[in-house]
């Protein structure tokens, strides 16, 4: 990734696997390391591939330049006074605070040795950032760009039109320029899109190829959002039918219970709170709040006695779980409606990531302003230590483990009226936002 400042030409070459820097002298640079729970930083570093051709390096000496012309190309950038930074995802280095992991400590030592060896060979000033945690700093999120811009580049304005990113995780298919395998990811491409700079293909940037096949554009999960109501014959209708039904029941003073079905990060609870509770006055029963299933049944029973309309805001995947609420509701002569919050797996993953990093992204967004292809940065961070930035970035939110989703899917049983429901509706996920900033950030690439 190359970036250009409006005051000083800067370049950042970013990739997980390739790249190198040409030395200006034989003098070994003074490497200054910074490390905390989130990130590992060195002032001076480079990008490479393994000499052994293994996917993972065997040791700190297992590296070579990815392309013969890498040193020459990087030297040209340095001579043009570009700022050069390397941004690398290194989740494998993360060690839980207070714990010891000799294997990961060895990997970190080998990585530092690799960077040190390269820096001793190269005389060009550059920065190396390694994201160890799954938060704002992990690409394709913009956290490492933020650190580069605020600290390494000292909050100097950046000309995004003249800046670019060199990366090999581009989502290219097998056979692209005769490649024997497909790219392992498309993280670099998404990162460049998030930052708003050009992406450079390594084979074209470092070699003499004049052209290459187009790179497939990544599909953002927002393109998968559907408002279709006819997602299956098991449903009696969609969102509008569901709303019409409960509205009619309220007007007729018919008492009812809504049993929600939906995975974590499906938007189920937001729908319940924003629509069913705030607009229609239903009483919410939620196990995240009440902790135990028994307390959920007890609160449901109490509200039934009081003649309240109720919504059961739990995942409710298994039939047996739903049966308890249906049986209890029927004892009080209530109608029971099922509302299935339908969502694709890709959107679940995106929502989970958004929930975890949204507060951090909002801070980052507030610190960067773009005006006519120029990024301007909050001058509060000028000449500040790196730790100062970490101290003011919010902590990440809760990230729901993939195990939780897999457990829900393994226990999920499709709902039907045969269970005792008076009607079964599908409510497809559609994103709703409280601000333009929320919408802007949700529409970025997060995974």
TrEMBL record:
It comes from the Eukaryota. InterPro entries: HAD-like_sf, HAD-SF_hydro_IIIA, HAD_sf, P-loop_NTPase, PNK3P, Polynucleotide_phosphatase. One of its GO terms (molecular function) is ATP-dependent polydeoxyribonucleotide 5'-hydroxyl-kinase activity. GO terms for biological process: DNA repair. NCBIfam families: DNA-3'-Pase, HAD-SF-IIIA. PANTHER family: BIFUNCTIONAL POLYNUCLEOTIDE PHOSPHATASE/KINASE, BIFUNCTIONAL POLYNUCLEOTIDE PHOSPHATASE_KINASE. This is Polynucleotide kinase 3'-phosphatase. It comes from Smittium simulii. The lineage of its organism: Eukaryota, Fungi, Fungi incertae sedis, Zoopagomycota, Kickxellomycotina.
